[in-house]
């Protein structure tokens, strides 16, 4: 694939950049091309910092940059948390806070030692996250004492990192000498501390590139907001670029999605066919599954879809996903959430990566080890890591052996992050290893399996055909006492769902729905279907 002129301008520009891009416009493609071209020019001791919001997204970015054999040099690929911990807090905290009494260990607010040491009391309220933040802001001295005892509070990691960058000259010198560029993908999912760290890296002279789409901000519940992407766009130190052309979706899908998020949109792309449809199914979940069983084979033939895993069924609630999984007679794969989704620890991320390696044949041992260790400079550790991976890989088809394999995972985690021992991550690992259902989620779909997943999980993915379910009043957007508490996030989620479709998107409602308490209710259509006079832009589903 050759970059388009607007992509090429971004790849060739050598200063600080903010890119605001439409869905499917090639933002991940463009930054990976830019990273590949920069890596070619760096010395072996230099690198880029390449950050994405989730473990999955950072693995994808790394794969796109290094998949063709590019030399990573001294680059960092991973999440923001991993960057704070490995590159800042563990490496330079002692210069500022004093030498810890023991190997540093990462703990979270639920840890009993933490509670006893600081007097912190469990917060059960809806505002628990806000309250923890407030506690951290008011108790920085306790965090420093905790550090000296050998513990780092996970929830405070960004605050500690910011403090260290501000106060430690050797940290700033190290970052400046080693890293020439910093890239943050999905910047619309940044929080305030992440934004501050990014600006500090820019102020150190590291060339800074942020890429995002304000309309794909869907993690508002974890204090993330597209506000920071907008702020960068207004910052005179950054040159603003746009990626406008959606390379993924059929023009009629692009027109619909654009009108959805912008009432005044009139700049329609000409299209002689409508590929976005609506369908109301008579009945509930069971009838929806029966309808899908009947129409999917027709859709596959009509749109020339080569394999069934290119069909995505996107749901708002995992309940709908599970019901479909049960009732679809067509082969399918449901990707539900795993307990690792909420675990931000380094051990949690390495356990998740090992599970992905075990079940996903497209990941090689060499790639996984290279992600954590310098294979030449840390040859002994790398050899041991590979040996343990081979051992655990053998259990892939043996559920009983898999259940007993956590000591191997722990040995690997101790090689890579000896100081990040995390009991919660080990407990999470054991839950997953003991659940054949959860282990299934780590296996990619076979070519003949239709993929079912939440709208959140579909972010960054694409399908030939999308069936977007759960378009019910009260469900999407969430409605409570006549109010929409997450209106913008929900609209963005709907927008993300539609723009995953390349050739065809079907927006589905049903006359019956089941609520969170398992009660059967009338299924009224979502107000999103009535927004911005969208109905002339879609057709009733006829196939
Ligand atoms: N220059 C190009 N030539 C051909 N295809 C391209 C080009 N740039 C991107 N694409 C294709 O367009 C699709 C979308 O690209 P990519 O996933 O990088 O977009 P994105 O902006 O990151 O998407 P999103 O934010 O919606 O997840 C992919 O199938 C990609 O291969």
From TrEMBL:
One Pfam family cited in the UniProt record for this chain: UvrD-helicase
Annotated signal peptide: none
Domain UvrD-like helicase ATP-binding, first and last residues per copy: 1-250
EC number: 5.6.2.4
One cellular component term from this protein's GO annotations in UniProt: cytosol
Keywords: ATP-binding, Helicase, Hydrolase, Isomerase, Nucleotide-binding
PROSITE patterns on file: UVRD_HELICASE_ATP_BIND (PS51198)
Reactions performed catalytically: ATP + H2O = ADP + phosphate + H(+); Couples ATP hydrolysis with the unwinding of duplex DNA by translocating in the 3'-5' direction
Molecular function GO terms recorded: 3'-5' DNA helicase activity; ATP binding; ATP hydrolysis activity; DNA binding
Domain of life: Bacteria
GO aspect biological process, one term: recombinational repair
Binding positions (ATP): 21-28
Protein name: DNA 3'-5' helicase
Natural source organism: Paenibacillus vortex V453
């Amino acid at each position: 694939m050759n970059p388009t002129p607007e992509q090429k301008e971004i790849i060739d520009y050598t200063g600080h950049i903010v890119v605001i891009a439409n869905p499917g416009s090639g933002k991940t493609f463009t930054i990976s091309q830019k990273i590949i071209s920069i890596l070619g020019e760096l010395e072996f001791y230099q690198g880029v910092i390449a950050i994405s919001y989730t473990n999955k997204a950072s693995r994808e970015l790394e794969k796109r940059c290094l998949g063709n054999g590019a030399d990573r040099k001294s680059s960092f690929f991973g999440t923001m948390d991993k960057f704070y911990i490995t590159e800042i807090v563990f490496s330079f905290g002692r210069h500022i806070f004093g030498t810890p009494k023991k190997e540093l260990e990462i703990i979270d607010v639920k840890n009993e030692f933490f509670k006893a040491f600081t007097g912190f009391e469990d917060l059960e309220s809806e505002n628990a996250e806000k309250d923890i933040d407030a506690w951290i802001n008011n108790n920085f001295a306790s965090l420093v004492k905790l550090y000296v005892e050998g513990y780092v509070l996970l929830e405070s990691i960004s605050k500690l990192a910011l403090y260290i960058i501000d106060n430690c000259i050797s940290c700033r010198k190290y970052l400046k000498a080693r890293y020439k560029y910093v890239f943050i993908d999905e910047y619309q999912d940044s929080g305030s501390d992440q934004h501050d760290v990014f600006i500090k890296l820019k102020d150190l002279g590291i060339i800074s590139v942020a890429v995002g789409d304000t309309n794909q901000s869907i993690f508002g519940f974890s204090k993330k907001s597209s506000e920071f992407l907008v702020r960068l766009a207004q910052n005179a130190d950054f040159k603003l670029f746009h990626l406008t052309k959606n390379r993924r979706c059929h023009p009629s899908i692009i027109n619909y999605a654009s009108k959805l998020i912008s009432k005044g949109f009139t700049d329609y792309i000409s299209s002689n066919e409508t590929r976005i449809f609506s369908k109301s199914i008579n009945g509930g979940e069971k009838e929806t599954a029966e309808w899908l069983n009947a129409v999917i084979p027709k859709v596959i033939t009509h749109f020339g879809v080569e394999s069934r895993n290119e069909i995505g069924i996107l749901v708002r609630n995992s309940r709908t996903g599970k019901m479909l999984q049960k009732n679809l007679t067509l082969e399918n794969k449901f990707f539900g959430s795993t307990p690792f989704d909420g675990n931000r620890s380094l051990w949690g991320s390495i356990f998740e990566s090992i599970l992905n390696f075990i079940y996903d044949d497209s990941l090689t041992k060499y790639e996984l080890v290279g992600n954590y260790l310098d294979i030449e400079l840390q040859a002994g550790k790398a050899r041991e890591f590979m040996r343990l991976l081979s051992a655990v890989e053998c259990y892939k088809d043996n559920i009983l052996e898999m259940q007993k394999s956590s000591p191997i995972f722990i040995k690997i985690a101790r090689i890579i992050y000896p100081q990040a021992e995390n009991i919660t991550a080990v407990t999470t690992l054991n839950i997953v290893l003991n659940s054949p259902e959860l282990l299934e989620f780590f296996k990619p779909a076979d070519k003949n399996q239709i993929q079912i997943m939440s709208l959140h999980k579909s972010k960054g993915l694409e399908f030939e055909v999308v069936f977007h379910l759960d378009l019910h009043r009260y469900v999407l957007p969430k409605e409570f006492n006549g109010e929409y508490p997450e209106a913008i996030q929900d609209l963005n989620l709907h927008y993300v769902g539609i723009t995953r479709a390349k050739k065809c998107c079907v927006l589905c409602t049903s006359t019956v729905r089941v609520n969170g308490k398992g009660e059967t209710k009338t299924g009224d259509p979502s107000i999103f279907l009535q927004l911005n006079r969208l109905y002339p832009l879609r057709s009733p589903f006829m196939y």
